[in-house]
Amino acid sequence: MDRVALRGLRARGHHGVFPHEREEGQTFVVDLTLGLDTRPAAADDDLAKTVHYGIVAEEVVALVEGEPVNLIETLAERIARACLEHDGVQEVEVAVHKPNAPITVPFDDVTVTITRSRA
After folding, report:
1. By CB atoms within 10 Å of each CB, which of 36, 37, 50, 118 scores lowest?
2. What is the distance between the alpha carbons of residues 3 and 40, in angstroms, rounded to a whole number?
3. DSSP helix, strand, coil percent of the chain (3-state; round to 5)
4. Exposed, middle or buried by CB within 10 Å (0-12, 13-18, 19+), for 39?
5. Is 11 helix (H, G, I), strand (E, B) or coil?
6. Inter-CA distances, 33 with 3, 70, 84, 85, 90, Å
7. Among the listed residues 4, 10, 56, 54, the one whose alpha carbon sits nearest the alpha carbon of residue 33
């Protein structure tokens, strides 16, 4: 299976369990790896035979900016489902980063990574 990756998609969302997270919002970062067969698109040099990653990126940002959820696990699941709705995408790995998570000790990042497939 071939891979199409999008790294570092950024959007402001209001996800989290604490009131200040819901009120103030924060930046979330999403990395995606889409699994699909790119041979038909390459053979015909045809965008319609692959995934349009620009559209996927816009959909992911809309989900991050959209309806708040408590957990980034839930957000990752929503993103995975949206990616799998694209024809040809057989598998997706989604990593949601929450670099400003409300943690009281020094840290670089919090990330939830999931893998989902059509099967």
Report:
1. 118
2. 14
3. 35, 30, 35
4. exposed
5. strand
6. 6, 24, 11, 14, 11
7. 4
Q: Is 49 a catalytic residue?
A: no
- CA dihedral (97, 98, 103, 106) in degrees, to 10, reads 60
Does the pTM surpass 0.85? The reply is yes
By C-alpha distance, which of 117, 99, 92, 73 is closest to 6? Answer: 92
Burial class (CB in 10 A: 0-12, 13-18, 19+), 53: middle
Beta bridge partners of 10: 29
Q: Of 12, 64, 98, 101, which residue is the catalytic one? A: 98
Place of tokens 């957000």: 75
